[in-house]
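(Deposited chain)
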Amino acid sequence: MDETGSLTDLGPNTWAVAWHKHLEQPECQVDMDFMGGVICDSSVQVRRIAFFDGVPDHFWGMEIKIAPYDNADIAAKKADGSYEEYIDDEENYGFGEFRLKLKPSNGWAMPYVTGHKYRIHWRRGLDFEQMKMEVSERW
């Protein structure tokens, strides 16, 4: 969080984070001057969400996939027939690696822009019985 706005030049309480495809939201922009990262205005916040302790443990080491999935955008894609193409296109996803020794435990932690919905799944599916998640106060 850029409390003063001196890093983002977007004013106080703005955000500067590493680039991930799913962070390309209307309130954010890819900023090549910020090491190719993403800067977001103060109308949103960025939170770290960690997923961990998946049961069964066949998710161990698997990559997480994240795509923007806001209701209005998805409804428009379904209406114009482009929904399946959007879901199947790997270019629409941000990817996160499984991290050993991640706190709270082994799993995946990624930044998310608040106020948006995301389609989250793992490289080879969604077949789990239990998954814990933790949301940070700040990224």
Q: What stands out?
A: Residues 46-135 form one domain. The CA atoms of residues 5 and 12 lie 4 Å apart. The mean pLDDT is 90.
